[in-house]
Amino acid sequence: TVAGIILGTGSASRAKQNASLARLELDDEDRARIAAQLERQNVPPGDMYDLERDVDGIHGGIIKMNLHDVDGVQ
Predict the structure, then answer these.
(1) pTM of whole model > 0.85?
(2) Hey, what's the torsion of the CAs at 34, 37, 39, 42, to 10 degrees?
(3) What are 49-62's pLDDT values in tens digits?
């Protein structure tokens, strides 16, 4: 089971293939299977971007922070 997809556009033909995903339509069975998979996953509650920004949170030890810090200015 695929939990997520990261798409790239390394070429014009790949970009055209990826554009076809905009026409993807999910039916009720698809949505039910996605919902069931999400319930089985151990996903922390909340917005993932907020979790990544929390230096004291569960991601604080693995996310690189302050990469653009120049003389104390971000």
Answers:
(1) no
(2) -130
(3) 787 778 787 777 77
Measured between alpha carbons, how far is 7 from 31 in angstroms, rounded to an integer? 21
Helix (H) or strand (E) holding 70: none
Q: Which two tokens stand for residue 48?
A: 């993932």
34: how many CB neighbours lie within 10 A of its CB?
13
Q: In residues, how long is the chain?
A: 74
Can you spell out the DSSP letters for 8-63? Answer: --SSHHHHHHHHGGGG----HHHHHHHHHHHHHS---SS-HHHHHH-TTSTTTTTS
Kindly state the DSSP code that residue 6 receives in the 8-state scheme: -
Tokens of 62: 């693995």
